[in-house]
Amino acid sequence: MVRVTAPAQLTVRDVTVRFAGLTALDGVSFTVEPGSVHAVIGPNGAGKSTTFNVLSGVCRAASGSVRLGGTELTGLAPHRIAALGVARTFQNLALPPYATVADTLMLGRHRLTRAGFLAAGLRLPSAAREARAHRERVREIAEFIGLEGELDRPASALPYGQQKLVELGRALCTEPQVLLLDEPVAGMTADERRRTAAVVAGVRDGLGISIVLVEHDMGVVMRLADAVTVLDFGRGIADGSPAEVQNDPAVVQAYLGAPQ
Ligand SMILES: Nc1ncnc2c1ncn2[C@@H]1O[C@H](COP(=O)(O)OP(=O)(O)OP(=O)(O)O)[C@@H](O)[C@H]1O
Ligand SMILES: [Mg+2]
Description:
alpha/beta; Rossmann fold; four-stranded antiparallel β-sheet; 10 helices; globular; binds adenosine-5'-triphosphate
């Protein structure tokens, strides 16, 4: 499960996003260091999901830049950004119904499939070898997320917390450099939260993948994050270590002033 290459730095510079009259992001900047957990927090409507939508190419920035290493990501289609190694999970579950855990994880391997459907259809040996390698990797990742015993079960039949882990696993199956997690522990029991936090820490420490984490659970943020960016009304109001931002008066004010 060890990565061969270190992930590149992800730099967000002066990103502005507007929706018909509303400025959802207003000159947001932050840098995600390779192999770190970088949390993006803020009250409801602060622009956290919009930030993810820009990073993954779902949403176009009116201005500003997002770079992965030397590569400019702004303006690229979502599948191009995914192919460059930026994977995401969604705030709400987005698992295909009826598919088994193994099939769902295999969906994440598709962008890596070289032999293609033609070779697979013709049953060429290269395609068979590749399919075996993909199945092996799916098994490794299932072990990594603690679901190797559930590979043949329909993902939608699993408890909610495990379904969220399947989604995380599917993102890992794309072999990303950067993983965007939108509220990974939302709606989970305390036990599921602990387990998911341990998996996320493992993704950083064991796989060396950079993680951008949007999460309302401050306990999880403070325990996992190496750095935190705080947004309020689309603006970056603080940046620093968890301890630094926790004691920042502007952050305290943003949270106290907002209905949670
Ligand atoms: N597609 C859209 N069209 C119009 N306005 C939008 C759209 N997406 C988001 N917004 C608005 O942009 C602002 C930022 O929304 P965003 O979803 O990024 O917030 P958030 O920080 O993720 O909030 P939450 O914590 O509730 O998930 C909000 O005012 C929201 O209503
Ligand atoms: Mg959101």
